[in-house]
Amino acid sequence: MKKSTLAAVGLAAALGLAACSDQTQQSMANDADNAAADANATMREAGSDVDAAFESAERSTENAADATGRALERAGDATANAADRAADATGNALVSAGNTIRD
């Protein structure tokens, strides 16, 4: 082959590779942008999921605290009622004992 033909073929190959390289670079840049966008979307969704989990845990904790408060209130009421009945029974027993002594 002549040197000029070889140079022309080499120049054409180099230009083809250069053009291909730009396309490849653009494609890689687009892929990187898409991957970054996907990663950002995934992180936002993960953040939303974590927020939702904390809100659910907070509601559960509040519900448990409310239930505990109601149970303690019922227990306090029951204790107060039992103490009232015991006081009444003691008072009645003392009145009965006093009546027995007096008679």
At a glance:
By secondary structure, the chain is mainly α.
What is the string of SSEs from the N terminus onward? H
From the alpha carbons, calculate the radius of gyration and give it in angstroms: 44 Å
Poorly predicted segments: none
Strand percentage: under 5%
Task: Note down, in words, how this protein is organized.
With 103 residues, the protein is an all-alpha fold. The chain has one helix at residues 3-102.
Descriptive labels:
97% helix; mainly alpha; 103 residues; rod-shaped
Write the layout of secondary structure elements.
Blueprint: H1 3-102
